[in-house]
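Supplementary Text 2. Reproducibility record for the structural model of the 189-residue chain.

All settings were left at their defaults, and a single model was retained for analysis rather than an ensemble. We include the record here because the model underlies the residue-level annotations in Supplementary Table 4.
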Amino acid sequence: MVHYGNGVLYFINDSGNDPILYRYDTVTNAYSEFEMLNASNVDWEDLATDDLGNIYIGDFGNNNNRRRDLKIYKAVNPESVFTNELSVETISYTYENQTQFPPANEQLYFDCEAMIWYKDSIYLFTKNRTEPFDGWCYMYSLPDEPGSYVAKLIDSIQFSASDRKSGWITAADIYMDTLALITAAAVTG
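Retained model, structure tokens:
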């Protein structure tokens, strides 16, 4: 979910649903939908916006670490259009350090449910599915322009969680220069 100011929220559904962007105005209780043209919903996970209000939809859910069609859809600021359809451009990518599809169980680092936009780049935060669970979350960066890219590994953090949900990154946000990473435990427990 992303906030556009004045009580306007945009949100999406997860995998397998229609490629729809939903808008809800908390002031007027008005609800509307935008059909995302040239897009499909294989496994949508997160939304981000840039300084112009362009919206990015992460179609990068990769539970089994097998996907080779990871992408982020980019559309113009939905508040600037007067139709219920938005055309998207595609940012396709691979992870620079993924060489097997899927990798061995102890290297299942390539699922993603969290992204932010910051200063002309998109940052992705992985959801660790290793067996045994080792707690590492990796941060990758991509340009925010349509094209095909290799996501660059920028940094990592290890969560010393006693259970998997406490270390699973399922959402991210940034406000000014403060980054927040949300875990599944924060969402469910």
